[in-house]
Amino acid sequence: MGLRPGDPVFVAPDGTVDRGLLDFVCSAEFRNLERETKRNYATDIRPLLTFLSSRGVPWRRATRQDLADYRHWRCRAPENPRRIGGTKWNRESAAFTKLFRWAKVSPLPVDIVRREDRAADSVSSRVMWLTPRTWGLWSDIGLRGHTRSGVQAAGWESRTELRNVSFVQLLLSSGLRRQEGGSLLTFEVPSQRLRFGRYCHGLVAAAVTRSKQSRVFYASVDAVGQVDAYVESERAWAVQRAQAEGRYERLPMMRLVTKVTRGLKPKIEWVDSDGVVGGQELSRLDWRERQWLFLEGPDGPEPAWLWLTEQGLPMAPDRWNGVFRAANLRCERVLLTAEERQIERDFRLAEVRGKSPYATPHAARHSMALYMLVLLNQLMETRYGLTAADRRDFALLFGDPWWLVKTLLGHADVEVTKRHYLAPVAHLQLESILAAAEPAGDEEQQVEDLDDVFARLARESQGIQDIDAVLDAVR
After folding, report:
1. Cis? peptide before 107, omega within 30° of 0
2. SS (H, E, C) 282-309
3. What's the confidence (pLDDT) of residue 432?
């Protein structure tokens, strides 16, 4: 049929499969999309198909009025308890446009190019931040099984606790996206320290980034140490069990790495299970090809993929969503009452939602950006003691904190950083906020002072979760 792993199949209410939609999924227009984009577009198109089916309208005969009615229900109808924002509508509109253009529906029921078919309020609503100590609370309760009093719950058992904590710490420290951090190979874990030894730097492969361009990333020594501990314990045990049970021998695809070159364009060479020799630039291997790579270990082949399941097999990047979801639910079980948990999250009052920290993989990236912005401003304001003229000169030479954070995140334009990641705090006068934090004589005390800065940001801004608010709600 031409379907590939991960391709969606649209099943009608009567159980039949629409051949036209199947051809669309197999077409070059859809097939060349990124895996995550395919999944997003498929989940966007499905409710539209359901809506048209409820009207008895074949999707190829959809009119502009049908799409206008659908948009009204999705975005504006007060009877709809799950209305979406402009950013989500624009993504859906792009998916519909691709489908209808491929099918040559005329006139186009919706066209993302038309101004009237785009939302004016297109602002990212998925931006969320947790302050550093709130991440600590979320990790302790959600990933380590602690109770409200801070001790491990009786009967708590998690055979992947160290793996999960290590992954979260790596994302918080580096600002990597879920797929970027989740696709790392064991020999790509940063090991080269910067001059003063508190951070290590590594390289993200182009094929796993959104921009398809390699970039340098930085991770703290503590985060890298957590990963090393995972590799030497949990991961090693999972590999040993998989080898003993012969799981790797039954894999349909295995490429045994024979050589990894260094330099500006590292290249990897391998031989597969049929003896066929191959090679490719490391930055050009996508996440699926990386799962096929194995290294020769002391007891036989073992995955080069860093993050493994309990069965010792490579863990797909999107499975991290389930880890975060389970941690969020555990935080709710510990911090909310039974009555509060029965209310679906979208319908909970703000004071109820504020009792329990809620995190996603991308929230780690947002939080890293916020932390770095505050830290860089503090360094310029308090540690270096720069005057206004000095700060202008510093910005001309090295860029202001916004530009530096943009570089760390790998954005092409600093305006993207300001608009989508840090918009809720852009209106704040960070200079006056940071002036309230007393400078300290040593580095450890300076980090503690940042807690006061984040607490004030959380009080004066929307979307920032801080532990004080959580604990006050719990008391």
Report:
1. yes
2. HHHCCHHHHCCEEEEECCEEEECECCEC
3. 39
Note if the pTM is more than 0.85: no
Q: What is the DSSP pairing of strand 267-272 with strand 255-260?
A: antiparallel
> For residues 420 and 233, what is the distance between their CA atoms, to the nearest angstrom?
38
Tokens 């309208």 belong to 57
How far is residue 327 from each of residues 140, 213, 338, 467, measured CA to CA in Å? Answer: 10, 32, 17, 16
- Torsion of the alpha carbons at 456, 461, 465 and 471, rounded to the nearest 10: 50
Q: Which amino acid is at 255?
A: R
> Low-confidence residues of the chain, pLDDT below 50?
125, 396-398, 427-448, 473-475
Structure-token pair, residue 106: 């005329």
pLDDT at 372: 78
Local structure of 146: helix, strand or coil: strand
Residue type, 381: E
Question: Is residue 150 exposed (0-12), middle (13-18) or buried (19+ Cβ within 10 Å)?
Answer: exposed
pLDDT at position 408, please? 72
CA distance readout (Å), 3 to 21, 25, 253, 326? 12, 8, 19, 32
- What's the angle, vertex CA 141, arms to CA 139 and CA 145, rounded to 5? 105
Q: CA 405, CA 373: separation in Å to the nearest integer? A: 7
Predicted pLDDT at 98: 94
Cα separation, 227 vs 306, in Å, equals: 9
Cα separation of 261 and 71, whole Å? 53
How far, in Å, CA of 145 to CA of 165, rounded?
11
Contact 458, 128 (CB under 8 A): no
Give the amino acid at 278. G
**What's CA 172's distance to the chain center, in Å?**
11
**Closest among 94, 96, 90 to 62, alpha carbons compared:** 96
Is the CB of residue 106 less than 8 Å from the CB of residue 116? no
CB atoms near residue 382 (< 10 Å): 17
Q: Are strands 255-260 and 215-220 parallel, antiparallel or unpaired?
A: unpaired
Two tokens at 39?
């999944």
| Beta-ladder partners of 464 | 129
Compute φ and ψ for 214, nearest 5 degrees.
Answer: -65, 150
* Cα 419 from chain centroid (whole Å): 18
Q: What is the pLDDT of residue 51?
A: 95
**8 Å CB contact between 132 and 371:** yes
In this prediction, residue 3 carries a pLDDT of: 84
Contact 314, 238 (CB under 8 A): no
3-class SS of residue 416: helix
Q: What's the pLDDT at 258?
A: 95
SS3 state at 161: helix
Say if CB 380 and CB 386 are below 8 A apart.
Answer: yes
State phi, psi for 333 to the nearest 5 degrees: -65, -35
Furthest CA-CA distance within the chain:
72
